[in-house]
Each structure stands twice: as C-alpha cells, then as structure tokens.
Design brief:
homodimer, Creatine Amidinohydrolase, 319 residues, 9 helices, three-stranded antiparallel beta sheet, 17 strands
Amino acid sequence: METTNRARIAELQKLLRKTGLDSLLVTSPSDRYYLTGFTGEAGVLLVEPRGLTLVTDGRFAVQAHQEARRLPVVLQSDGLYRTCGLVEGLRARKDGDELARMRKSAILASEVVESSIKLLKSGVSELEVAAEIEYQMRRRGASGPAFETIVAFGERAALPHARPTAKRLKKGELVVLDLGAILENYCSDLTRTVFFGKAPAKIRLWYGAVREAQAAAVACVAAGRTCGEVDAAARTVLAAHRLDQYFVHSTGHGLGLQVHEDPRLAKGQKTQLASGNVVTIEPGVYVAGVGGIRIEDDVAVHPGGREVLTSASRDFIEL
Amino acid sequence: METTNRARIAELQKLLRKTGLDSLLVTSPSDRYYLTGFTGEAGVLLVEPRGLTLVTDGRFAVQAHQEARRLPVVLQSDGLYRTCGLVEGLRARKDGDELARMRKSAILASEVVESSIKLLKSGVSELEVAAEIEYQMRRRGASGPAFETIVAFGERAALPHARPTAKRLKKGELVVLDLGAILENYCSDLTRTVFFGKAPAKIRLWYGAVREAQAAAVACVAAGRTCGEVDAAARTVLAAHRLDQYFVHSTGHGLGLQVHEDPRLAKGQKTQLASGNVVTIEPGVYVAGVGGIRIEDDVAVHPGGREVLTSASRDFIEL
C-alpha cells in the first residue's frame, strides 16, 4: 500500500477507537480502493482498531498483492468451498414437523387444482384461471403461491414454463395447470393436464405414456436410490413409447421452504435419496404446434418406503 | 426457539467443528428461518461452533423475540448509526495526490467538451455526439465516462437528465452537453450549453442570468461557508432575474472516486465546506417547450481560497 493509503487507514482506525466500534466491514468498492488502492471487482475489507484484512477470491490474489503490497489478504475460496451447501444439506432431510406441514401444503394444492378444473369453460382466459387459482389458495390459508402459477391452453402447453396470457380456451385444446402454495412456510408443487373436449387417440396415447412414466419414477423413489436412477425410470418408459425426445427437462427437484431445493433429480445424478427428502416427480412431453402433457406429484422418502403427498386424481379427464 | 430449531443448530455447529470453520454467516432468509424460526425480512445469523447471534434491525426486535425466544439478538441500528459516513467523511476531503488526479480529469473533460462543440452540425443526432464524446475521452486516457453522457437538443434540453436519443439537430435549438470522465479512478463532471444558430434575445438573457448565478455560487465557495449559502448565492441571482422557479435542482454535489459524493450543495444545508472538498457548481434554468441552460464547473476548496478545475470557456456560443 502507498503511504497515503496507510495514513487513511490509520485515521479510520482512530475513528473506530473513538467511537468504540470493534470493526468495520467495508463493502463499497470506492471506499475499498480509497483505503487500500486495490481495484479488484470482488472483495471486502475488514478494518479493526489495530487490524486490517482484505477478503477476496483467487481471481484477484495477484492483483491485490501488486496494488496493495503488505496488505494482509485472505482468500475466501477455501471457506466458500467448505461452507457451500452446509445448511442446504440439513434442509434436504425434513423432520416430522416439516413433513406434517408439507402434507398440508400438498393437500391444499390438490384441492385447488381439482376446483380449478371446474372453471374450464369455452372463452375463459389463462389469466382468469390463474387469478382464481391464487385466490383459492389464499382462501384456504396459504400465504401465497410458491411460484407464478402456470396455466397454458392448446399450443401454449408445449412451453414447460408458460406464463398465463389473455388467451381464451376453446374446444380441442390441452390444458396444463402447474401450481403450488406456501402454507406455514412450506411449498407444494403440483401439475395436472386435462383435455377440453373429446381427445384424439394420439393425445390419449401420450397421456397414458406420461402417466406410466410418472408412476415408474414414483415407484423408484426410495432411500439409497440415486437421483439419476429415478430420472432414468421415467425416461425409459417414455423411450419405449418413442416419446423420450419430447421430455426436455429433468424429472424433479427437492421441495421445502423453497420451491427448488436439493436434491435434483436429473440425468446421471449420483446423489442418493435419503429418508426425509421430499421431491417432485414431474415427467412430461412437449410437442411444438400441438401442446404438452405433464403430471407432477410431491413424494416424501421414508425409511423403507415412500409417501405421495399430493392427492388429486391422475385419471385422464376430458371436459 | 423451538426444540427442532435447537437441534438443527446443534447439528450445524457439529459440522462447523468437523470442518474447522470459525463461523458461518447465514444470509439466506430460508436458511435463517429453518435454523431459528425467525421470519423477519431483514437479518443475518452468525453461527459459531459454540455461539449463535441474530443480527437484525429495530423493526424486527419484537418479532425476533417472539418467534425465536432465547435467541441472542444484536440490533444493527446502533452500529449502523456509528459507522454511517465514516469512510465517506474521510473521502470528502481530498489530499494532494487526489487533487492532482482530479485536476487532470477536469482538464480532460474540458478538452472533450470543447472538441465536441465542433461536431454540432445540422442533422447530427444526440446519440452520435454522445458516442463521439465518450470515444474522445477514451482516446485521451480516461477509463470511461463517469456517468451516461447527456446530449440534449432543443426542447429536450428542458430535461436536466435527458438520455441521448436519435433526435437530430436543427437551427434555432439549444444544446446541453453534460459529461464527465474517469481518469486514474477520479471523476470529472462538466456542463456547457450553446446555441445552434442566432439566439433570440430571451435566450441570451437567460444564459446571462445562469452565468451570473454560477459565478456568484463559485465565488461563495470557501472553507467555513455552509453548503446552503452556496446554493442560496445561485438562487438569489436567478430570483433577481425572475428565473428562480425554473431552477429545479440543487446547486451541486461532492465529486471524487464517485460522481456523487459528500457534501451536497442544496437549499438549507448546514454542512460547512472544508479545504479538500471538491464540488460541482451547476445552476440551470429549464423551461418546458423551450429548452434548458446549465453551466457546471468543478471547484476545489483550498485554505483561504478556491480553484476552478474545469477550464472550458463559459462565453455564450452561437454556432
């Protein structure tokens, strides 16, 4: 560091002693540069009455040494590596109280999806159905939706994450409803697909394949199984129906205080499921120009078994 | 805290001891809730191998006590109050090295504004002039503009913070150029207003009034004067011309590593100027439907005097 930097730090330390502060964590890049001369993009400076430490990461180690010689530098990479996922790991295994809340949240979502299917009439818009779904959640005690509710009609159902629009429902269209509630701080996540009208044979076949794939993946959920095995269970069924190329996302994800948590159920994932995990199982097929079909449930892993928390019917519904 | 929270914290502390970490600062709201039950919007949790502290602010003190009984809580308000402005206060008084850099940055901006006035021709767009200004800064060694360059033609000059558009210059329009460079990490900030064509008498009168107001405020800059007095010096001159209602912002601001720093030169401000301060002096008048006129210079406060760092001519220019 330059003499001017040293003088500025000395003056600041004098102020700390005068005000009786133990330390000051300087997070402003301008303040950090002013005090040390270090111009790196990442880093915080810990100023103590008789101490000084720059915390930055490996990308800036050489630069910190060059720009601020004799400034003590701690690299956060080591600490970061060791802290990453520490609390997330604990959160992935739900205890009895958490499972009780998640059960209630899943049942609430199941009731709401069943009631919202009754709203599907010619001319209703995606936005109207989404608004009604979120209203029904709140009426049943949810603090709000766990994510922006998906309501997709017809060709729009081919978008796995369609945002509701002013599009109005007409005969002969698929309807995907993907919704979740936050109840007592815990999330649910549920998808059902129905057909508005009399479905063509191809749609019935696709629905049957997705339902079979979803059931196979649910049956695969058990402590000790890897996440990749659960994902493969769904994919194998769809491949037998020559539909695996239309399954464009992973099979599921952990669920809890947040809607996406560990573990992730994706291709090749070696992480083993453990009792206390709660995961979604949500395979789907998406065909541009036609629509999409997805069935999603929330499943808890128990010692020696599993529990499907969501209860809405998975039968193919034609309205 | 509930028994479950205590158990989770104990497990996390065991992990900390195992990994040899001194402490973990939990910033995720979900993690914080999971570990303590506290649902407040603000707060971080410091977990140590044998310690636990929630840091939050006064708004959540009662809630933290209710939701997480016996959790040690530290309110940051006291610390915040004492740390606020500590480094900013030091930064407001520039030393010799900083003043040398600010002088260079101000001269660079002065050269650029003078060269950019030569670009003003019928049909040139605001965006073209802004692009050329920023290119000229870089060519002269600046690391970049200190803020998004303002180029405003005609009626658009009535917007003090106009962003450059595709609008093309035509005869009979005011042109406001407000630009600043970052040179060796220090900012300049400079505004000049010219007229494209032969100016009507009213515009000449207004320009004369703004120039007189700016000179009065610059002359008022001295160690010991309050920021409010400097602001009043500009306002008094404009009031004598019955133009004070068109001066819609404050007279200036501190300048240094950032383009807006302490002190602020606004109405009624009691802060006293001190030697080492560098401030902008930038009164203006803005008339909707007609345009605006602003003149801005950077001024350093010296013991027993002042130094205007920016050098571009303030004479009224008709092109």
